[in-house]
Amino acid sequence: MLLVTVGTEQYQFNALMHWIELLMKYQLIDQEIIVQYGTSTYLPDGARAYRKLSESDLLKFVDRATLIISHCDEAIAQFLEDKDTPYVLVPRLQRFREYIDNHQMEVADDFERRGIAIARSPGDLVKFIKLQQTSKVSPKVDETQLCEYLRDRYQPQKLMLVCAGGGYFRYMQSLKDFWETCSNRLWVSVRSQTTEEEIEDADRYWGFVPVKNNPINFFRNCSLATKIISRHQPDLVISTGSSFALPYLILAKWLCGSKVIYIESKTRLQNVGFPAWFLLKLHLLNHLLDLVVVRSETIAALHPRAVYIPVSDGHGNGSPAFSNRDYKQVSVVTFDQVAFIFCPENLIFVTARQFFNDFQSICNADEEYRKIIIDMSHTAAIDSAGLGVLTNCLRIAALNETELILWSVSEAMRELIGLSSLSNLFIMEHESNTFRFAGSIQKTKVSNITPFNLFLFRLQRNLRQIPFLGIFHPILKFIFPWVDVDPSVPVHPSVRDPIKRLIDIIGALIGLSLTAILFVPIAITIILESEGGVIFGQIRCGLLSKPFRIWKFRSMVKNAEQLKQKVTNQVEANPQSDQSDTAANDKFFKNADDPRVTKIGKFLRKTSLDEFPQFWNVLIGDMSLVGTRPPTFNEINSYELEIEYHDERYTEWNRLDVRPGITGLWQVNGRSSVRTFGEVVNYDIEYRKNWSVWYDLKLIVKTVLVLFDKKNKAV
Fold first, then answer.
1. Backbone angles phi, psi at 180, to 5 degrees
2. pLDDT tens digits, 540-558
3. Is the pTM of this model over 0.85?
4. In the chain, what are the domains?
């Protein structure tokens, strides 16, 4: 049985209710579901729902549950830590009116650092539920710093470990690096399947619970403590919290003068619990405690006698250990007919290949999944290589007749996917979009924002929302074409650079003025030589593969596209490519003696006059004066992820990270000598890496010099 409880808060938690229904819709939960929904107004269909639960009913359901899902509250965490049932907490978010502020998000980050399972999306719940079905899931927490602190100060001859079950026992297990150094030790814990299996020492004793509201068990523990301590005479006693440990700690100190260490529960963030408070009061009377360890700076400030030791991050500096979340490291989770694959935080050229390999692993002939779900709840950045991966995934899924669905796509990611025209091809599960980013990801997103871009982004949103000011939105977008791209999304710096845009506007106006002067004579010569229009338009791929129509003076015969297959492509296949020559040649087409080119067309190409209408593309923001060569959609359909360019492992898709340009590095350095597509990509990647405003100006000057070079053999 799965138990969902959200307390009796005055705020709804409809998002969690939708998540549970989503998991049921995809048949990911095959057990009874009990929901205590509080003030939520939406209930998952098919679940047994209760507005409130009495304490006795809640305890009954907790004892029956195989997994508990609750909101990220300190009180509920302290309650569940005492149980042996796995649990996962979901933080409430102010944005969705689930809480008065974002305090639970801060608590979630702190809890996660302390090894408590946190789910920020339905995809996180999927991981936890799946792994809970197949193995015992215990989110890892690094206690290196605490263990080193204890080792430096204590070398016990006889060690006594006292802890209750559930989270308190897991807490003690995380200190194994310290207590396993003492071979002469004994355990006092609560009997459960977990403790019986994992405590292998011969000297182990089972205490009595519950202690709260049950004085009989308190006295039974006192009796057991007297017996154990008299027999073993421990010189050091360590406890990881709960009232259960009090008799053992107090009697160990009074009967044989043991050193007593009490480690406060990691779920305590604001103040100590009753056991720690009671022991600190006794310490004032008779110096009972040798050490009280707390895991919160706030608590340490309230209790000067306590020692604050943060949870380690694996590097000894006590910062959040987001990289140590074992169950969240899983990249693929599979069920009978549904497979999940989880996007990395940055779906860029560095991680794109591994993600694609993971996707291919669940699309092999031995597996037949009805649906494949790509979870993007932790994805905050995506480049052209990432979009290329999604395109290839979509193509493979279509071939396998598998439905491909995107979960938890942030608004910023939806905008980028929308730019590439892929949004209409993907199915997006909107009920999953109430996910919440982790604190580390949110900080990274904020660090990407500049005040100027944030101002423009908010301004354009306000202009669109206010009717009578809406007429100014197209003007703002004309001046700053990137204005509707979320400023927290990292893009190539050239995309948002206002100086580059200013140069583009000035250059485009000058270029269009020249085009207007030359238009009539060029148009007359084109019409006199061959049938067809003066201007030729073709759909090309722009920034992040955004489609746009490029304009040129027509330099070929009217039916040039139909005759293309009869013309030999002089571009050689990339020697690194695994594709056939035909597929490889589809990436880039070139023939120095193309018979489709007219006589006036050869002149226009040699002088680059055929590209003058592209100044209009520059003016409206589809292109830039300087950039990469804009490919056709037929060309990018042949792009590969496996081939690496430069030491940084760039892909062919990364050419699309910058706006395409009228001129560029390959045009001024080797337009007439390029013989492989790899050379073109290397030039474009080099421009991407070395871009600056001065670099653009340098290439513009070089372009002018190339045009007047007699050796220019542009084609």
1. -75, -15
2. 999 988 899 999 998 888 7
3. no
4. 2-134 (3.40.50.2000), 144-308 (3.40.50.2000), 331-436 (3.30.750.24), 449-487 (no CATH), 496-707 (no CATH)
